[in-house]
Write a structure and sequence with these properties.
The protein has helices spanning 154-159, 185-188, 336-339, 375-383, 498-502, and strands at residues 4-13, 16-28, 42-50, 60-65, 71-75, 81-87, 90-97, 104-111, 116-118, 121-123, 132-135, 148-152, 177-178, 197-198, 207-210, 213-214, 216-217, 222-223, 232-240, 253-258, 266-274, 294-308, 312-331, 396-403, 406-417, 421-436, 453-470, 474-490. Mean pLDDT is 82; it is low at 1-15 and 25-37. The longest helix has 9 residues, at 375-383. Strands 1, 2, 21, 22, 23, 24, 25, 26, 27 and 28 form a 10-stranded antiparallel beta sheet that branches. It has 512 residues and is mainly β. It has 5 helices and 28 strands.
Length: 512
């Protein structure tokens, strides 16, 4: 049976968190078909028989990964069973040979992340010069587990249009998945993509893995590494009944596999542009002024290929985003006269010091004496902008830019050490600084000018994995993952000791 050991350390300071995880798997891979934990790989098992239904021991089976040329070889046991574990996702050719039988070959077999395929093989008696070739695809019926899961393949990831190019939006292609509207502070801080709800569970209860290691910030339960869609091979959403080794959260497991290099050099470049010149005017914008800016640029490149043919490969990806979007808000703020206590022309103000049971004396000329004005209120009003138009309501028009620069980088190296060892490593970073002058619409906020914020997310993720095969029965897989995440809110008034300047009582003056 598989054995899994996990060691995890978490430390937080301020608005930062670091997660280290180390997982080691050593499983006895009996050719009777023992299944091991499949984080970011796939497996094939089955039985080899002759045309009369008799089992065939000693059959040599080889699985060849078409893109990289790497091979995995096994021999069927005394019961004719075989097991090909820890296979990199992608297209394979499977061959089976035994003296006195025609060679068997199956081409075009595409393996998905976490897939477990039962492949029956029948060998026909005949000369070695004869061969049987089968071209087909993997069976859709899952016979190895009762989980409910969906795979978003490379074609969907690459070709479906995505506003903002966030892969998690593709989760909505499957049943029971929805992207809810914002409304919580955690949602407002989720800069690496809106979190989906799966079968009614909270988005913060999902587990997110990239290449088998966790990329979930445990402080806010957010996804903090959002790979470029051009760097994703495919991803799988395991909704229910996924294996126990993925425990820790109550909702879905979302497992992303990034692209690896192959024997052929390939790459793409991207560029997307939006501009206010193509947009209509906002109803509340000043018609005498130009349309406020709305400029969104996304750009990047990715390239992969061999470092050493059939042995070492690389895949490099970079994507950047620059958003400058004018935000228009209207506010109701006190006029200069009202701030000085002058309420002339308005309903009479009662002096509370003269209030009797049913009557009171109004202020002279409807003017509150300067000595009666609260110094705390005056200090606060000094920070609030004056009206930009006449009237007492909706008299302040605020137009400021929301700026959202983003940069993400990923480098993956795959290396094959002989016939029994395979090593991979990947390093990814994400940097987002979102300036929100009036707060965020996901919280229905309308902060007056000067009281906005900048939300930052800075994260790094390192994944290293090594797989070693001992003969035909044993497999050892060890994986190390590191995740560092920092960020939070920065106010333009940060460092201003308002309580001390205004005499406000009962508020802390600690700079933290």
């Amino acid at each position: 049976m598989p054995q899994l050991a996990t060691c995890r350390q978490t430390s937080r300071s301020g608005r930062s968190s670091i997660v280290l995880s180390l997982a080691s798997l050593c499983a006895l891979l009996l050719t009777a078909g023992t299944a091991s934990a499949q984080y970011n790989t796939a497996e094939i098992s089955g039985m080899v028989k002759d045309s009369q239904g008799g089992v065939l021991p000693g059959v040599i089976l080889v699985a060849t990964h078409v893109a990289s040329g790497s091979k995995v070889e096994r021999v069927s046991d005394g019961a004719g069973r075989f097991f090909l574990p820890a296979l990199t996702v992608g297209e394979y050719t499977i061959t089976a040979e035994l003296t006195g039988f025609r060679p068997f070959s199956e081409k075009g077999l595409v393996l998905r992340v976490g897939q477990k395929i039962e492949l029956p093989i029948t060998l026909q008696i005949g000369a070695l010069a004869d061969a049987i070739t089968v071209t087909g695809t993997a069976l859709l019926l899952r016979t190895a587990s009762a989980e409910i899961a969906e795979i978003i393949d490379n074609r969907q990831v690459q070709q479906l249009p995505l506003n903002g190019r966030q892969f998690i939006q593709l989760a909505q292609l499957t049943d029971g998945v929805t992207i809810p509207p914002g409304g919580t502070r955690g949602a407002a801080l989720g800069q690496a993509g809106s979190l989906p709800n799966v079968y009614g569970q909270r988005g913060g209860h999902n587990i997110y893995l990239v290449d088998g290691v966790k990329v979930t910030d445990e402080y806010f339960n957010n996804l903090v590494i959002n790979p470029s869609v051009d760097a994703i091979q495919e991803f799988k959403i395991q909704k229910t009944m996924y294996p126990a080794e993925f425990g820790g959260k109550a909702s879905a497991l979302i497992n992303v596999v990034t692209k690896a290099g192959s024997n052929r050099v390939h790459g793409t470049a991207l560029g997307f542009v939006r501009n206010e010149k193509f947009d209509a005017r906002n109803y509340f914008d000043d018609p005498a002024k130009p349309i406020p800016p709305l400029r969104q640029n996304q750009f990047g490149f990715n390239v992969g290929g061999p470092i050493k043919r059939d042995q070492t490969f690389f895949f490099l990806s970079y994507e950047g985003q620059r958003i400058r979007k004018a935000q228009t808000q209207t506010f109701s703020v006190p006029t200069a006269a009202l701030r000085s206590g002058d309420f002339s022309g308005l309903a009479a103000l009662c002096d509370p010091l003269t209030r009797a049971a049913t009557t009171c004396t109004p202020f002279a000329n409807n003017q509150i004496p300067a000595s009666r004005l609260s110094p705390v209120a005056l200090a606060l009003l000094a920070k609030v902008p004056l009206p930009t138009s006449a009237g007492l309501v909706q008299n302040l028009l605020g137009v400021e830019d929301e700026v959202n620069p983003m940069n993400q980088f990923s480098l993956r190296i795959d290396h094959r050490i002989g016939a029994s060892d395979r090593l991979y490593s990947r390093f990814s970073t994400l940097r987002v600084h979102d300036t929100q002058p009036f707060g965020t619409g996901s919280l229905n906020e309308a902060l007056v000018p000067g009281f906005g914020r900048t939300v930052t997310t800075e994260s790094e993720n390192l994944a290293i994995g090594h797989t070693h095969t001992f003969g035909s029965n044993w497999l050892n897989e060890i994986r190390f993952g590191y995740l560092g995440a920092r960020g939070g809110q920065i106010s333009p008034n940060q460092g201003v000791n308002f309580a001390a300047a205004s005499g406000l009582q009962g508020a802390t003056q600690d700079a933290r």
